[in-house]
């Protein structure tokens, strides 16, 4: 059986991710109490289920600490287990709750002060939730949904699940520093010191995926040196991370606007590593989040 567990912050897009897996042919269950996980998996094995996805959230707060040990036990039984954690910045979550007028699931616990300062109460509930989910986050592959559209989140999830379950998957992600560093990154490289195609009028409206921009950067010795050094660093440590049973490694590469230099290097590095590793690529700013909040 292939089992996918989806957890994460309330409002970060867990429902969107679960719908993506349902579209991909998974049997999906939302908000399963952790106490039932092992028995539920055993039942689905009896039914010869091939692909199962389960979503859990902070509403099961008292039993969430059971989950990491349960996942390890299921892996020991030979199941292909993938754990995805949907995250978003506190500011993004506050905005999403304000737009949808939904109540945070921890608001009923009385953990945040009442009164007129509703935003402060919401922030405190979000930060409490973040603390309660720390252990599960540490055991999962993190997807930062702060700045991506639901359709892009669905694509990310399908791509991750489509990768070979027994191999390490290497994810390269471009981003703009002016919009914040992705919280899902394992390694972050700053390439803002490279020559910027933005200042070339003929290249400004293009991206690092376009041939003229690629040709411009390939002609810059600094860009080649940066690409070589990043490739060497990542390549040196990937075997160790694979031996440590890491499922995913995310390498984030940032420039000022996330359109030219970081995009170009993500394209080049993904191509370089694709021959040896399962490799995915993302370009956060080229398909940035602008619409209503995922649930």
How does the SSE layout of this entry go?
Blueprint: E1 2-8, H1 14-23, E2 27-30, H2 37-46, E3 51-55, H3 67-76, E4 80-87, H4 90-100, H5 118-132, H6 134-138, E5 141-144, H7 150-162, E6 169-176, E7 187-190, H8 211-218, H9 221-243, E8 248-255, H10 261-273, E9 278-283
Parallel strand pairs: 1-3, 1-4, 2-3, 4-5, 6-8, 6-9, 7-8
Helix pairs in contact: 1-7, 4-5, 9-10
Could you please describe the fold and organization of this structure?
The chain has helices spanning 14-23, 37-46, 67-76, 90-100, 118-132, 134-138, 150-162, 211-218, 221-243, 261-273; strands at 2-8, 27-30, 51-55, 80-87, 141-144, 169-176, 187-190, 248-255, 278-283. With 295 residues, it is an alpha/beta fold. The protein has a 5-stranded parallel β-sheet, sandwiched between helices. Strands 7-8-6-9 form a 4-stranded parallel β-sheet, with helices on both faces. Helix 1 (14-23) crosses helix 7, helix 4 (90-100) crosses helix 5 (118-132) and helix 9 (221-243) packs across helix 10. The longest helix has 23 residues, at 221-243. The radius of gyration is 20 Å and the shape is globular.
Compact description:
The chain has 10 helices and 9 strands. It is an alpha/beta fold and about 300 residues long.
Run of helices and strands: EHEHEHEHHHEHEEHHEHE
Q: Tell me, rounded to a whole number, the average pLDDT.
A: 88
- Helical residues, percent: 40-55%
Largest sheet: 5 strands, parallel
- Report the portion of residues in β strands: 15-25%
Number of helices: 10
- Uncertain regions: pLDDT < 50 for 5+ in a row? 110-116, 289-295
Order of strands, main sheet, comes to 2-3-1-4-5
